[in-house]
Amino acid sequence: MRGGSAQALAVATAATAMHRGRGEAEHPHCQLLERMAAPLPAGRQLTRLLVNVTVERSLWPVHVVLPADATVADLVRAAVAAYAREGRRPPLPARGAGALELHFSKYSLESLTPEEKVMDLGSRNFFLCARRSAAA
Hints:
The chain is an alpha+beta fold. 32% of the residues lie in helices and 18% in strands. Strands 2-1-4-3 form a four-stranded mixed β-sheet, with helices on one face.
């Protein structure tokens, strides 16, 4: 083995031993994961959601902050407003938010119902695209 590889292996082994309880310190990532998995203390509620919406033919997602009780329709309106405010390209259709639909991913064929709560969907990443016309 090269010297650098042996040193990296030794550091990784020491960190693993310490975070498994055999050492004095616990790994910081383990502490963070424990805090994230713990339920919110009594009296505290989630008040806002950070959601990523990838718009069809756009290079990167739009980040939207919504209230916890927001619906899919609210998310579509907020994503369209953020997209236009940031001057993204390509421009969205002039028909407005009603001409767009939200999906879990670009590979999902079924669109989300506008009345659904974003909090209940179990995802914070979505795909926004032009509404598909009904097959004749």
